[in-house]
Amino acid sequence: MYGGLSEFIGGIQAGYNFQAGHILFGVEGEFDGATFAHPALPTPTLGSVRQNWIGTVAGRVGLVADRWLVYAKFGGGWVNSNAILNFPGVSWSGSNTSSGWLAGAGLEYGFKSNWTVRLEYDYLGLANWTSSTVPSISLNRDLQMVKAGINYKFVSGLPDSAAPTRTASPAHTADHEDLAKQSQNPIADLVSLPFQSNTNFNAGPFNRAQEVLNIQPVVPLRINADWNMISRTIIPVISQPSPIFDSNTNGIGDITQSLFFSPAHPGALIWGAGPVFTIPSATDPILGTGRVLLGPTAVFLTTPGHWVIGVLLNNQWSVGGNPLRPPVNTFLAQPFVNYNLAGGWYLTSSPIITADWLAPSGQRWTVPIGGGFGRIFKIGDQPVSASIAGYYNVARPTGTPDWQLRTFFSLLFPEK
Residues with Cβ < 8 Å from 411, sequence gap 6 or more? Predict the structure, then answer.
């Protein structure tokens, strides 16, 4: 196989752990659906291999320290693939399930008594698949996987009371405004699961609607008594208008991960800074850049009286990925202003300003203005935040949407 592509996989896992002191032993299985194909010959038009599903079983051993677990894992896996070869004198397709060995390592953190998040790297070495053609083609399907996950433990770990001290007002006071301020702070020590729907109108030559649903889990991780690290992931589910046909392409876009290092006990100015990177996980070329992006990110805010005022900034450059795709150099600034009212209601404005530094000077900037309103409330015992807002792009590249409707719904998990 000649090279490959980085794409999106997703699935479920289950396992069993046994802890003796600071040492953990476990076994786990995983099943993932795959959505990617990679070239089997120098050009995809001559041949490609498509992965359909991936299954693994592995044992793991790790070192536990407070809420952190560092571990290694070893085992085996199976991959089901389809292949197509089509070049002069050869037309062949086939399906095959192959097994191989698995090695990996990861980092896991218990953010609540029954919940953990993890980041893991796995290498799955598979036997070559030789086509029944003349001449035969050897297809190498080795996989490298970077996986982020969230797990529920049926036996709790540390009690919720062992959680780090909040950087904002304690949520247990049940005060709507305190919880609202935490939910409006991108680097608050508050676990949340936001769903942000961005409907962009009048996109492309056929003036179709582009829909981007961002799934944005935010998990604070305690480093020590003085510092927290806040993990913010953005998984976009996209319906993208075609630039050629009057139709849309649907799928997963490129996934962005931000890590903010923030003081656990800030003063009047709350801040965090760290790296941001984007992986080319799009399930269709039109849904992503095809490049690995990396850069710095930072957020600054203050919370005087009923206000939450701040800005989130980042810039990313392409540092890898498909060399046939164009390079990337993009800037993002998201100022946010929230005013909290009685009864959990709040007013909000949070436009997303972007710049493509590689575009012609008159086509670089997208600058929206607008705002909306929202409310903090409960569904049963579950605190949630919901809002709706509209934005008009006063500056935008030609052919891009002119206005946006944004709806927001977030599950909030304050400590008890």
Answer: 192, 193, 194, 382, 383, 384
Q: Average pLDDT of 275-301? A: 94
Which segments of 290-402 are extended strands (E)?
291-302, 307-321, 329-340, 345-349, 353-356, 365-379, 382-395
Let me know: does 50 contact 82? Beta carbons within 8 Å.
Answer: yes
Q: Which residues are bridge partners to 39 per DSSP? A: 48
| Phi, psi (degrees; rounded to nearest 5) at 137 | -120, 130
Which pLDDT score is estimated for 1?
37
Residue 344, SS3?
helix
* 359: number of Cβ within 10 Å: 13
Q: What is the rounded distance in angstroms from the CA atom of residue 268 to the CA atom of residue 155?
A: 39
Please tell me whether residue 399 adopts helix, strand or coil conformation.
coil
Phi, psi of 160 (to 5 degrees): -60, -30
DSSP string, 118-146: EEEEEEEEE--EE-SSSS--EE---EEEE
Architecture of the domain made up of 9-152:
Beta Barrel (2.40)
Q: What is the CATH superfamily name and number for domain 163-413?
A: monomeric porin ompg (2.40.160.40)
Answer whether 349's CB lies under 8 Å from 337's CB: yes
CATH 2.40.160.20 placement within the chain: 9-152
Q: Please state, in angstroms and rounded to a whole number, the distance separating the CA atoms of residues 358 and 319.
A: 15
Domain with CATH 2.40.160.40 in the chain: 163-413
Handedness of CA 196, 199, 200, 205 (dihedral sign): positive
Dihedral sign of CA atoms 386, 392, 396, 398 in order: positive
Q: What is the pLDDT of residues 36-76, one digit of tens each?
A: 655 555 555 566 677 789 999 999 999 998 888 999 999 99
